[in-house]
Amino acid sequence: MSIPCASSSLAFRLSRTVLTTIQPPIPQALAWGSAYPSTPARPLLDMSQGAPGNPPPKVLLDALAKTSSSPQSTGYGHVLGEHKLRAALAQEMKMVYGQHADITSNDVAITAGCNMSFIAAVMCLAEAGDEVILPVPCMSLNLLGIKSVPLRTRSDQGFLPSPDECKRLITSKTKAITLVTPNNPTGAVYSPALIAQFAELARENNIALILDETYRDFVEHLPPHNLFSRMQREVLPPSWSWRSNIIHLFSFSKSYAIPGHRLGAVVASPELLQYITTTLDCIQVCAPRPPQLALANASLLSELRSSIQSNAKALKARHELFRKSLPSEWTIGSQGAFYAYVKHPFENVSSTTFCERLAKELGVLVLPAQFFYDEEDKQALGLSEEGWDRWLRFSVANVGDEEIVKVCERLKEWKAHFTVL
Protein backbone atom coordinates (compact mmCIF):
# COMPACT_ATOMS: atom_id res chain seq x y z
CA MET A 1 0.00 0.00 0.00
CA SER A 2 1.37 3.39 -0.91
CA ILE A 3 1.99 5.97 1.79
CA PRO A 4 0.78 9.48 0.97
CA CYS A 5 3.55 12.00 0.47
CA ALA A 6 2.99 15.56 1.56
CA SER A 7 5.11 18.43 2.76
CA SER A 8 5.09 18.81 6.52
CA SER A 9 6.37 21.25 9.09
CA LEU A 10 6.93 18.41 11.54
CA ALA A 11 10.52 17.65 12.49
CA PHE A 12 9.73 13.96 12.87
CA ARG A 13 8.24 11.18 10.78
CA LEU A 14 4.75 9.85 11.32
CA SER A 15 4.13 6.13 11.62
CA ARG A 16 3.33 4.15 8.50
CA THR A 17 0.28 2.69 10.21
CA VAL A 18 -1.37 6.06 10.80
CA LEU A 19 -0.47 7.28 7.31
CA THR A 20 -2.17 4.26 5.75
CA THR A 21 -5.30 4.41 7.91
CA ILE A 22 -8.49 5.75 6.35
CA GLN A 23 -9.21 9.33 7.37
CA PRO A 24 -12.34 9.93 9.49
CA PRO A 25 -15.20 10.16 6.96
CA ILE A 26 -17.61 12.52 8.71
CA PRO A 27 -15.24 15.55 8.93
CA GLN A 28 -14.49 15.16 5.22
CA ALA A 29 -18.19 15.12 4.37
CA LEU A 30 -18.96 18.05 6.66
CA ALA A 31 -16.29 20.09 4.89
CA TRP A 32 -18.18 19.55 1.63
CA GLY A 33 -21.42 20.57 3.30
CA SER A 34 -19.91 23.76 4.69
CA ALA A 35 -19.29 24.92 1.12
CA TYR A 36 -22.99 24.72 0.24
CA PRO A 37 -24.81 28.10 0.20
CA SER A 38 -27.55 27.09 2.63
CA THR A 39 -30.69 29.23 2.96
CA PRO A 40 -33.82 28.87 5.11
CA ALA A 41 -35.78 27.97 1.99
CA ARG A 42 -33.18 25.45 0.83
CA PRO A 43 -31.11 24.20 3.77
CA LEU A 44 -28.37 21.58 3.77
CA LEU A 45 -29.93 18.12 4.15
CA ASP A 46 -27.57 15.85 6.09
CA MET A 47 -27.94 12.08 5.68
CA SER A 48 -24.26 11.36 6.27
CA GLN A 49 -23.90 10.34 9.90
CA GLY A 50 -25.41 7.28 11.56
CA ALA A 51 -26.78 9.14 14.56
CA PRO A 52 -30.16 8.81 16.27
CA GLY A 53 -32.55 11.51 15.12
CA ASN A 54 -34.43 11.73 18.40
CA PRO A 55 -33.17 12.66 21.87
CA PRO A 56 -33.25 10.07 24.66
CA PRO A 57 -36.54 9.65 26.55
CA LYS A 58 -37.00 12.12 29.43
CA VAL A 59 -36.63 9.39 32.04
CA LEU A 60 -33.12 8.68 30.76
CA LEU A 61 -32.24 12.37 30.48
CA ASP A 62 -33.35 12.84 34.10
CA ALA A 63 -31.24 9.90 35.21
CA LEU A 64 -28.23 11.29 33.32
CA ALA A 65 -28.70 14.71 34.90
CA LYS A 66 -28.74 13.16 38.36
CA THR A 67 -25.68 10.95 37.90
CA SER A 68 -23.69 13.63 36.08
CA SER A 69 -23.99 15.95 39.07
CA SER A 70 -23.29 13.24 41.65
CA PRO A 71 -19.87 13.13 43.37
CA GLN A 72 -20.09 9.33 43.05
CA SER A 73 -19.55 9.58 39.28
CA THR A 74 -16.37 11.67 39.47
CA GLY A 75 -14.03 8.94 40.68
CA TYR A 76 -12.51 5.98 38.88
CA GLY A 77 -14.75 3.00 38.27
CA HIS A 78 -13.98 -0.68 37.74
CA VAL A 79 -12.12 -1.30 34.51
CA LEU A 80 -14.83 -3.75 33.35
CA GLY A 81 -17.64 -1.36 34.25
CA GLU A 82 -20.22 -0.87 36.97
CA HIS A 83 -21.35 -4.28 38.20
CA LYS A 84 -25.00 -3.22 38.31
CA LEU A 85 -24.89 -2.17 34.66
CA ARG A 86 -23.18 -5.40 33.65
CA ALA A 87 -25.93 -7.35 35.41
CA ALA A 88 -28.67 -5.15 33.94
CA LEU A 89 -27.31 -5.56 30.41
CA ALA A 90 -27.08 -9.34 30.81
CA GLN A 91 -30.73 -9.35 31.87
CA GLU A 92 -31.73 -7.02 29.02
CA MET A 93 -30.03 -9.32 26.51
CA LYS A 94 -32.46 -12.04 27.55
CA MET A 95 -35.22 -9.73 26.30
CA VAL A 96 -33.50 -9.59 22.91
CA TYR A 97 -32.13 -13.12 22.54
CA GLY A 98 -34.72 -15.03 24.58
CA GLN A 99 -35.04 -16.05 28.21
CA HIS A 100 -32.98 -19.19 27.51
CA ALA A 101 -29.97 -17.09 26.49
CA ASP A 102 -26.98 -18.19 28.56
CA ILE A 103 -25.56 -14.79 29.52
CA THR A 104 -24.47 -13.56 32.94
CA SER A 105 -22.92 -10.38 34.30
CA ASN A 106 -19.54 -12.17 34.39
CA ASP A 107 -19.64 -12.28 30.56
CA VAL A 108 -20.00 -8.48 30.23
CA ALA A 109 -17.43 -5.68 30.06
CA ILE A 110 -18.42 -2.03 29.62
CA THR A 111 -16.30 0.13 27.32
CA ALA A 112 -16.04 3.73 26.14
CA GLY A 113 -18.05 3.07 22.98
CA CYS A 114 -18.25 0.13 20.58
CA ASN A 115 -15.11 1.21 18.69
CA MET A 116 -13.25 0.69 21.95
CA SER A 117 -14.88 -2.74 22.31
CA PHE A 118 -13.66 -3.76 18.87
CA ILE A 119 -10.12 -2.46 19.33
CA ALA A 120 -9.80 -4.08 22.76
CA ALA A 121 -11.03 -7.43 21.43
CA VAL A 122 -8.74 -7.40 18.38
CA MET A 123 -5.73 -6.40 20.48
CA CYS A 124 -6.32 -9.50 22.60
CA LEU A 125 -6.55 -11.78 19.56
CA ALA A 126 -3.99 -10.55 17.06
CA GLU A 127 -0.68 -8.79 16.72
CA ALA A 128 1.22 -7.12 13.92
CA GLY A 129 1.28 -9.38 10.87
CA ASP A 130 -1.79 -11.39 11.83
CA GLU A 131 -5.01 -11.33 9.82
CA VAL A 132 -8.66 -10.55 10.54
CA ILE A 133 -11.31 -11.21 7.90
CA LEU A 134 -13.89 -8.43 7.45
CA PRO A 135 -16.68 -8.23 4.87
CA VAL A 136 -16.17 -5.11 2.79
CA PRO A 137 -17.18 -2.30 2.78
CA CYS A 138 -15.48 -1.90 6.16
CA MET A 139 -12.89 0.06 8.06
CA SER A 140 -9.29 -1.16 8.28
CA LEU A 141 -7.00 -2.33 11.09
CA ASN A 142 -3.88 -0.69 9.68
CA LEU A 143 -3.37 1.37 12.83
CA LEU A 144 -2.67 -1.84 14.76
CA GLY A 145 -0.43 -3.29 12.06
CA ILE A 146 -2.98 -6.09 11.58
CA LYS A 147 -3.95 -7.06 8.06
CA SER A 148 -7.61 -6.66 7.19
CA VAL A 149 -8.47 -9.42 4.76
CA PRO A 150 -11.42 -8.28 2.62
CA LEU A 151 -14.35 -10.65 2.26
CA ARG A 152 -16.02 -9.29 -0.85
CA THR A 153 -19.78 -8.81 -0.91
CA ARG A 154 -21.89 -8.17 -4.01
CA SER A 155 -24.98 -6.15 -4.77
CA ASP A 156 -26.70 -9.07 -6.53
CA GLN A 157 -26.43 -10.99 -3.25
CA GLY A 158 -27.77 -8.14 -1.14
CA PHE A 159 -24.25 -7.44 0.19
CA LEU A 160 -24.44 -10.59 2.31
CA PRO A 161 -21.10 -12.28 3.00
CA SER A 162 -20.52 -15.84 1.82
CA PRO A 163 -19.26 -18.44 4.34
CA ASP A 164 -17.77 -20.46 1.46
CA GLU A 165 -15.82 -17.44 0.19
CA CYS A 166 -14.72 -16.70 3.75
CA LYS A 167 -13.47 -20.25 4.21
CA ARG A 168 -11.08 -19.80 1.27
CA LEU A 169 -9.57 -16.73 2.94
CA ILE A 170 -8.62 -18.43 6.20
CA THR A 171 -4.88 -18.99 6.65
CA SER A 172 -2.55 -19.88 9.50
CA LYS A 173 -2.39 -16.15 10.29
CA THR A 174 -6.16 -15.70 10.59
CA LYS A 175 -7.18 -14.86 14.15
CA ALA A 176 -10.80 -13.80 13.71
CA ILE A 177 -13.75 -13.20 11.42
CA THR A 178 -15.66 -9.99 12.04
CA LEU A 179 -19.30 -9.49 11.11
CA VAL A 180 -21.38 -6.32 11.55
CA THR A 181 -25.11 -6.98 11.45
CA PRO A 182 -27.17 -5.02 10.60
CA ASN A 183 -24.27 -3.82 8.52
CA ASN A 184 -22.64 -0.43 8.37
CA PRO A 185 -22.55 0.97 5.69
CA THR A 186 -24.78 -1.30 3.60
CA GLY A 187 -27.67 -1.83 6.02
CA ALA A 188 -27.71 -5.53 5.10
CA VAL A 189 -29.23 -7.69 7.85
CA TYR A 190 -27.70 -11.15 8.30
CA SER A 191 -30.16 -13.95 9.06
CA PRO A 192 -29.79 -16.21 12.12
CA ALA A 193 -28.93 -19.09 9.77
CA LEU A 194 -26.14 -17.12 8.06
CA ILE A 195 -24.68 -16.02 11.40
CA ALA A 196 -24.76 -19.64 12.58
CA GLN A 197 -22.81 -20.72 9.49
CA PHE A 198 -20.07 -18.23 10.29
CA ALA A 199 -20.02 -19.37 13.92
CA GLU A 200 -19.54 -22.96 12.74
CA LEU A 201 -16.75 -21.84 10.40
CA ALA A 202 -15.01 -20.13 13.33
CA ARG A 203 -15.46 -23.25 15.49
CA GLU A 204 -14.04 -25.56 12.80
CA ASN A 205 -10.93 -23.39 12.45
CA ASN A 206 -10.42 -22.53 16.14
CA ILE A 207 -10.66 -18.79 15.55
CA ALA A 208 -12.92 -16.10 17.00
CA LEU A 209 -16.10 -14.72 15.50
CA ILE A 210 -16.41 -11.06 16.45
CA LEU A 211 -20.08 -10.16 16.10
CA ASP A 212 -20.72 -6.41 16.15
CA GLU A 213 -24.43 -5.96 16.84
CA THR A 214 -24.52 -2.22 17.39
CA TYR A 215 -27.84 -2.06 15.48
CA ARG A 216 -29.36 -5.29 16.83
CA ASP A 217 -32.46 -3.53 18.18
CA PHE A 218 -33.47 -2.42 14.69
CA VAL A 219 -34.02 -5.81 13.04
CA GLU A 220 -37.48 -7.13 12.25
CA HIS A 221 -36.83 -10.68 13.39
CA LEU A 222 -36.05 -11.45 17.03
CA PRO A 223 -33.89 -12.95 18.25
CA PRO A 224 -31.23 -11.69 15.80
CA HIS A 225 -29.59 -15.12 16.15
CA ASN A 226 -29.67 -18.16 18.43
CA LEU A 227 -26.00 -18.52 19.37
CA PHE A 228 -26.60 -17.70 23.04
CA SER A 229 -29.26 -20.39 23.48
CA ARG A 230 -28.54 -24.12 23.57
CA MET A 231 -32.21 -24.94 22.99
CA GLN A 232 -32.68 -23.20 19.62
CA ARG A 233 -29.23 -23.32 18.09
CA GLU A 234 -28.84 -24.50 14.48
CA VAL A 235 -25.84 -26.01 12.64
CA LEU A 236 -23.54 -26.02 15.66
CA PRO A 237 -23.14 -29.17 17.78
CA PRO A 238 -25.02 -29.34 21.13
CA SER A 239 -21.76 -29.57 23.08
CA TRP A 240 -20.43 -26.29 21.66
CA SER A 241 -20.44 -23.23 23.92
CA TRP A 242 -20.68 -19.71 22.50
CA ARG A 243 -18.00 -18.65 25.00
CA SER A 244 -15.38 -20.70 23.16
CA ASN A 245 -15.55 -18.65 19.93
CA ILE A 246 -18.01 -15.75 20.07
CA ILE A 247 -17.17 -12.15 21.00
CA HIS A 248 -20.31 -10.01 20.95
CA LEU A 249 -20.01 -6.22 20.68
CA PHE A 250 -22.74 -3.72 21.51
CA SER A 251 -23.22 0.05 21.56
CA PHE A 252 -25.60 1.94 23.80
CA SER A 253 -25.32 4.88 21.39
CA LYS A 254 -27.93 3.83 18.85
CA SER A 255 -30.48 1.98 20.96
CA TYR A 256 -30.55 4.55 23.77
CA ALA A 257 -29.73 7.62 21.62
CA ILE A 258 -26.67 8.65 23.65
CA PRO A 259 -23.71 8.55 21.20
CA GLY A 260 -22.02 11.49 22.96
CA HIS A 261 -21.78 9.56 26.22
CA ARG A 262 -19.56 6.88 24.64
CA LEU A 263 -20.77 3.61 26.09
CA GLY A 264 -20.30 0.17 24.58
CA ALA A 265 -19.91 -3.43 25.69
CA VAL A 266 -18.02 -6.64 25.06
CA VAL A 267 -19.85 -9.88 25.85
CA ALA A 268 -17.47 -12.84 25.90
CA SER A 269 -16.02 -15.63 28.00
CA PRO A 270 -14.88 -14.48 31.47
CA GLU A 271 -11.54 -16.06 30.59
CA LEU A 272 -11.14 -13.69 27.66
CA LEU A 273 -12.37 -10.76 29.76
CA GLN A 274 -9.33 -11.21 32.00
CA TYR A 275 -7.22 -10.10 29.05
CA ILE A 276 -9.77 -7.51 27.95
CA THR A 277 -9.22 -6.05 31.43
CA THR A 278 -5.51 -5.65 30.73
CA THR A 279 -6.17 -4.03 27.37
CA LEU A 280 -8.84 -1.65 28.64
CA ASP A 281 -6.72 -0.62 31.61
CA CYS A 282 -4.06 0.55 29.13
CA ILE A 283 -6.33 2.53 26.82
CA GLN A 284 -9.39 3.71 28.78
CA VAL A 285 -8.88 2.96 32.53
CA CYS A 286 -12.66 3.01 32.91
CA ALA A 287 -15.66 3.85 30.78
CA PRO A 288 -17.57 7.11 31.48
CA ARG A 289 -19.34 6.67 34.79
CA PRO A 290 -22.38 9.02 34.60
CA PRO A 291 -24.10 7.07 31.78
CA GLN A 292 -23.16 3.77 33.42
CA LEU A 293 -24.74 4.78 36.71
CA ALA A 294 -27.78 6.20 34.92
CA LEU A 295 -28.44 2.94 33.10
CA ALA A 296 -27.41 0.61 35.93
CA ASN A 297 -30.98 -0.29 36.68
CA ALA A 298 -32.67 -3.30 35.12
CA SER A 299 -36.10 -1.73 35.54
CA LEU A 300 -34.99 1.42 33.65
CA LEU A 301 -33.63 -0.64 30.75
CA SER A 302 -36.90 -2.55 30.69
CA GLU A 303 -38.84 0.73 30.69
CA LEU A 304 -36.75 2.05 27.81
CA ARG A 305 -37.50 -1.05 25.69
CA SER A 306 -40.80 0.44 24.46
CA SER A 307 -38.99 3.56 23.24
CA ILE A 308 -36.48 1.42 21.36
CA GLN A 309 -39.28 -0.55 19.72
CA SER A 310 -41.06 2.67 18.69
CA ASN A 311 -37.86 3.99 17.11
CA ALA A 312 -37.39 0.71 15.26
CA LYS A 313 -40.90 0.95 13.79
CA ALA A 314 -40.30 4.57 12.77
CA LEU A 315 -37.05 3.59 11.04
CA LYS A 316 -38.80 0.84 9.12
CA ALA A 317 -41.44 3.29 7.92
CA ARG A 318 -38.75 5.80 6.95
CA HIS A 319 -36.98 3.16 4.88
CA GLU A 320 -40.23 2.46 3.06
CA LEU A 321 -40.73 6.18 2.41
CA PHE A 322 -37.19 6.51 1.12
CA ARG A 323 -37.62 3.54 -1.20
CA LYS A 324 -40.91 4.93 -2.49
CA SER A 325 -39.56 8.48 -2.99
CA LEU A 326 -36.18 7.65 -4.55
CA PRO A 327 -35.93 8.44 -8.30
CA SER A 328 -36.24 5.32 -10.43
CA GLU A 329 -32.78 5.79 -11.96
CA TRP A 330 -31.18 5.14 -8.57
CA THR A 331 -30.63 1.58 -7.33
CA ILE A 332 -31.05 0.38 -3.75
CA GLY A 333 -28.70 -2.50 -3.01
CA SER A 334 -29.70 -3.10 0.60
CA GLN A 335 -31.50 -1.42 3.48
CA GLY A 336 -31.68 -1.97 7.20
CA ALA A 337 -31.29 -0.35 10.62
CA PHE A 338 -29.90 3.16 10.07
CA TYR A 339 -28.73 2.82 6.46
CA ALA A 340 -29.64 2.46 2.81
CA TYR A 341 -26.88 1.60 0.33
CA VAL A 342 -27.68 3.19 -3.01
CA LYS A 343 -26.03 3.28 -6.45
CA HIS A 344 -26.04 6.60 -8.28
CA PRO A 345 -26.92 6.64 -12.03
CA PHE A 346 -23.75 8.23 -13.46
CA GLU A 347 -21.48 5.71 -15.15
CA ASN A 348 -17.72 6.20 -14.84
CA VAL A 349 -18.13 8.71 -12.01
CA SER A 350 -16.75 7.75 -8.61
CA SER A 351 -19.01 8.17 -5.63
CA THR A 352 -16.45 10.46 -3.99
CA THR A 353 -16.61 12.93 -6.88
CA PHE A 354 -20.37 12.65 -7.03
CA CYS A 355 -20.91 13.09 -3.26
CA GLU A 356 -18.70 16.18 -3.16
CA ARG A 357 -20.70 17.87 -5.90
CA LEU A 358 -24.00 16.66 -4.46
CA ALA A 359 -23.14 18.35 -1.17
CA LYS A 360 -21.65 21.57 -2.53
CA GLU A 361 -24.18 22.18 -5.32
CA LEU A 362 -27.44 20.49 -4.32
CA GLY A 363 -27.06 20.52 -0.53
CA VAL A 364 -27.43 16.77 0.07
CA LEU A 365 -24.80 15.25 2.34
CA VAL A 366 -24.16 11.47 2.09
CA LEU A 367 -21.06 9.27 2.24
CA PRO A 368 -19.34 7.66 -0.75
CA ALA A 369 -18.37 4.00 -0.90
CA GLN A 370 -14.68 4.91 -1.04
CA PHE A 371 -14.81 6.14 2.56
CA PHE A 372 -15.25 2.51 3.64
CA TYR A 373 -12.38 0.88 1.72
CA ASP A 374 -8.63 1.14 1.90
CA GLU A 375 -6.54 1.19 -1.28
CA GLU A 376 -5.92 -2.56 -1.39
CA ASP A 377 -9.64 -3.28 -0.98
CA LYS A 378 -10.45 -0.86 -3.81
CA GLN A 379 -8.13 -2.68 -6.19
CA ALA A 380 -9.64 -6.05 -5.33
CA LEU A 381 -13.22 -4.84 -5.55
CA GLY A 382 -12.61 -3.00 -8.78
CA LEU A 383 -12.09 -6.38 -10.38
CA SER A 384 -15.03 -8.10 -8.70
CA GLU A 385 -18.00 -5.93 -9.65
CA GLU A 386 -18.42 -3.24 -12.26
CA GLY A 387 -19.56 0.06 -10.81
CA TRP A 388 -18.65 -0.84 -7.22
CA ASP A 389 -17.40 2.73 -6.72
CA ARG A 390 -20.81 4.29 -7.48
CA TRP A 391 -22.42 3.24 -4.21
CA LEU A 392 -23.44 5.77 -1.54
CA ARG A 393 -24.53 5.42 2.08
CA PHE A 394 -27.68 7.27 3.11
CA SER A 395 -28.51 7.42 6.83
CA VAL A 396 -32.27 7.54 7.34
CA ALA A 397 -31.95 7.70 11.13
CA ASN A 398 -31.01 11.31 11.74
CA VAL A 399 -33.66 12.92 9.52
CA GLY A 400 -37.43 13.08 9.55
CA ASP A 401 -39.97 12.10 6.90
CA GLU A 402 -40.06 15.62 5.49
CA GLU A 403 -36.30 15.65 4.98
CA ILE A 404 -36.43 12.23 3.31
CA VAL A 405 -38.88 13.56 0.72
CA LYS A 406 -36.85 16.74 0.16
CA VAL A 407 -33.64 14.76 -0.36
CA CYS A 408 -35.31 12.60 -2.99
CA GLU A 409 -36.74 15.68 -4.69
CA ARG A 410 -33.26 17.15 -4.98
CA LEU A 411 -31.96 13.87 -6.36
CA LYS A 412 -34.53 14.23 -9.13
CA GLU A 413 -32.69 17.37 -10.20
CA TRP A 414 -29.63 15.34 -11.24
CA LYS A 415 -30.49 15.24 -14.95
CA ALA A 416 -30.54 19.02 -15.28
CA HIS A 417 -27.79 19.79 -12.80
CA PHE A 418 -25.11 17.19 -13.40
CA THR A 419 -24.85 17.51 -17.16
CA VAL A 420 -21.04 17.45 -17.07
CA LEU A 421 -19.05 15.28 -14.69
Automatic annotation (TrEMBL):
Boundaries of every Aminotransferase class I/classII large domain copy: 44-411
Gene3D superfamilies xrefs: Type I PLP-dependent aspartate aminotransferase-like (Major domain)
Q: Is Transport one of the keywords? A: no
Q: Which InterPro entries match?
A: Aminotransferase_I/II_large (IPR004839), AspAT/PAT-like (IPR050596), NHTrfase_class1_PyrdxlP-BS (IPR004838), PyrdxlP-dep_Trfase (IPR015424), PyrdxlP-dep_Trfase_major (IPR015421)
Note whether Nucleus occurs among the keywords. Answer: no
Q: Which cofactor does it need?
A: pyridoxal 5'-phosphate
Q: Which molecular function term from Gene Ontology is one that the record holds?
A: pyridoxal phosphate binding
Q: Tell me the PANTHER family matching this sequence.
A: ASPARTATE AMINOTRANSFERASE (PTHR46383)
Q: What is this protein called in UniProt?
A: Pyridoxal phosphate-dependent transferase
